Amino acid sequence: MYYFWEEFIFPEDMYGVPGKIRYKKEIGENYNEAADWEKISKETKTLVWNNGSLELAQR
């Protein structure tokens, strides 16, 4: 089994950050359900609007 999930969290949303957009992505693959063997990859980014385009936020 394979799955892909992504989400954008905007400043006004629950768990939003003022002035920033949060991006989350998760990709998973279940190799053997009986053995509970799976591979999961997660990615998160914090983005800001700068001159009309989205850019990675500086820490």
What would the keywords be for this entry?
single chain, 59 residues, mainly beta, four-stranded antiparallel β-sheet, 64% strand
What does this 3D model show about the protein?
With 59 residues, the chain is mainly β. It has no helices and 4 strands. The protein has one domain. 0% of the residues lie in helices and 64% in strands. Strands 1-2-3-4 form a 4-stranded antiparallel β-sheet, with no helix packed on it. The radius of gyration is 15 Å and the shape is elongated. The mean pLDDT is 92.
What is the gist of this entry?
The chain is mainly β and 59 residues long. The chain is built from no helices and 4 strands.
Main sheet properties: 4 strands, antiparallel
- The backbone outline, from C-alpha atoms, is elongated
How many discrete structural domains? 1
Give the mean pLDDT. 92
Beta-strand percent range: over 45%
Order of helices and strands: EEEE
Structural class comes to mainly beta
Task: List the total number of helices.
Answer: 0
Number of extended strands: 4
Which residue ranges are poorly predicted, with pLDDT under 50 across at least 5 consecutive positions? none
**Helical residue percent?**
under 10%
Radius of gyration: 15 Å
Q: Termini separation (Å)?
A: 36 Å
Order of strands, widest sheet: 1-2-3-4
